[in-house]
Amino acid sequence: MSSETTPRNNFIRELVEDDVATGRFGRPVTTRFPPEPNGFLHIGHAKSICLNFGLAEDFAGRCNLRLDDTNPFTEDMKYVEAIKRDVAWLGFTWAAECYASDYFDKLYEIAESLVKTGKAYVDSQNEEEIRENRGTVMEPGKPGPYRDRTPEENLDLLRRMKAGEFPDGAHVLRAKIDLAHPNMIMRDPLLLRIRHASHYRLGDEWCLYPLYDFAHGLSDAIEGITRSLCTLEFKDNRDIYEWLVNEAGFERPPTQIEFARLELDYTVVSKRKLLRLVNEGHVSGWDDPRMPTLAGLRRRGVTPEAIRAFCDSIGVARKPARTELATFEHAVRNDLNMRVPRVMCVVDPIKVVLTNYAAGQVEELDASYYPHDVPLTGSRKVPFSRELWIEREDFMEDPPKKFFRLAPGREVRLRYGFFITCQEVVKNDAGEIVELRCTYDPATRGGDSPDGRKVQGTIHWVSAARGVTCEVRLYDKLFTVPDPEAQGDDVDFTTFVNPDSIRVMSHAKVEPSVLGDAPDARYQFERTGYFVKDVADWRDERPVFNRTVTLRDTWAKVKGA
Ligand code: ATP
Ligand code: MG
């Protein structure tokens, strides 16, 4: 897998190389990808997946899939299933499937030992008192009235907390570190809290739940992780991470390295926000093809190889930066260009009648699936008949100079077919064009004229006799602004959902060859874009295609680039 792109050189890789050279951890490189099962994975997670699994692969180490499931309110088995499906789809195999919730016993044991050595205490202040007494960046915090409870008293309370004797919020377990610490997180951080809630895996077994900081580093240590990779917003959590793994007595404990999260223009990468798009009906679900989720991208026709190539191309850095959508689309086109067959589909059809072609006759024309610069071969037959569909925008009654397609009196080439000349434009009472009456030149079969006559345009078409009516969904950006989250504090990001992010073309016509293909087959519709069969909504009597990406970056043109 690593051979298909450039080496993944980055600062994390250099650190890991150094670990291996010095034998720092005394065990193979061990990483983990630790999603919380509270939503579907998105393109930002793909960056972390490629990084963690990629390092393990490159250094012959291990990478675990860890479900970081310590919050009983938001987690669900359906998200676990989706996460596993998506990581596997990206092409990675985890060394072990782990659950933070499997470590609750071990975490509780560590909590008791911290209490016994006076490194943790039960605090009975409420949330607000705790916050107030923690101080500010400018001012040190103040010890609350419970900070000096004896280890015996703390142990007794902790055991009763675990036994379910107290309601939510009555007590919390806190590390006893330093209320004047310059890093606010180190001012006696909370470790365990009471939550009488049903956990999706453990049911009602526990009413004590670990906070992120308590669970995360220790889960890493329990699994023997060497480098724990996380995004920059956890930089301040590194002190507590180190404090805990050391206090818990792990030998050669893991260390945390932070890197910049992926932020992609014209979308949001936060499960919480994506969940809102789903719940508020802005999209049809987590796998809506407009979503930046892996499930959405898959349904959109993006390949796992394209996502991995994209992640490699953006690299891994310490500084936050946004990634342009064009960078992503470039990776998608590059990948699809080399692998998908070319077929013909008329998205917005207008009828052509060849007046000198026999009614009822159908002939099969040879059409190759791939252009010469793609190292794949294959062909199919496309039916040709007296009545055809062409793209409405490929005809102009009164064309400007640079228009080289069909116009009255003008001759063009039908791809793989014949030269045709438009003789007459038929309109309805409303003045709309309903039919173009043309003649074809039988001598031009295959696309060349024996008399050396040239035409300036070649257009795609579909036989009306044999073509299949289908629905084509043209997707555009999900948001109207590059950074919908940075439009001011009082402006909700959903304000910028693009009302034109989907255009449904319900009378498109596709050549019949596609019907027998796989349910998730991908294509280039010639001159139109890359498309995929929609796995969810496809019916044989009503085929549906999703546009994965246009053929070129139309936005570069708009920006004048
Ligand atoms: P979200 O806000 O989407 O819920 P999260 O960080 O809370 O993101 P987790 O499920 O906790 O989601 O993330 C699992 C792993 O994926 C973490 O190690 C996290 O740092 C990483 N990750 C999440 N989002 C991104 C991103 N945009 N870029 C890179 N890595 C990410
Ligand atoms: Mg999280």
Quick take:
Helix content is 25%, strand content 23%. The protein has 13 helices and 27 strands.
Keywords for this entry:
single chain; 561 residues; alpha/beta; Rossmann fold; Ribosomal Protein L25, Chain P; 7-stranded mixed beta sheet; 27 strands; disordered C terminus; binds adenosine-5'-triphosphate; binds magnesium ion
Would you kindly provide a written description of the structure presented here, covering whatever features stand out?
The chain is α/β, with parallel strands linked by helices. Helices cover 25% and strands 23% of the residues. It is built from 13 helices and 27 strands. Helix 3 links the parallel strand 2 and strand 3. The radius of gyration is 31 Å and the shape is elongated. The site of adenosine-5'-triphosphate has 16 residues, from helix 2, strand 8 and helix 9.
Tell me the structural class.
alpha/beta
Question: How far is it from the N-terminal to the C-terminal residue, by CA?
Answer: 34 Å
User: What is the CATH fold-level name of the domain at 11-259?
Assistant: Rossmann fold
CATH superfamily of the domain at 11-259: HUPs
Physical arrangement of strands within the biggest beta sheet: 12-25-26-27-23-24-13
Low-confidence segments = 1-6, 555-561
Task: Compile the SSE list and pairings.
Blueprint: H1 11-22, E1 30-33, H2 43-58, E2 62-67, H3 77-90, E3 97-99, H4 104-116, E4 120-123, H5 127-132, H6 151-162, E5 172-175, E6 190-194, E7 208-210, H7 212-223, E8 227-231, H8 238-247, E9 255-259, E10 263-264, H9 271-279, H10 294-300, H11 304-314, E11 322-323, H12 325-337, E12 342-343, E13 345-346, E14 349-354, E15 362-368, E16 379-385, E17 387-391, E18 411-414, E19 419-427, E20 433-441, E21 458-459, E22 461-463, E23 468-475, E24 502-510, E25 522-525, E26 529-533, E27 544-549, H13 554-558
Parallel strand pairs: 1-2, 2-3, 8-9, 10-11, 12-25, 14-20, 18-21, 23-27
Antiparallel strand pairs: 4-5, 5-6, 6-7, 13-24, 14-17, 15-16, 17-22, 18-19, 19-20, 23-24, 25-26, 26-27
Helix pairs in contact: 2-11, 7-8, 11-12
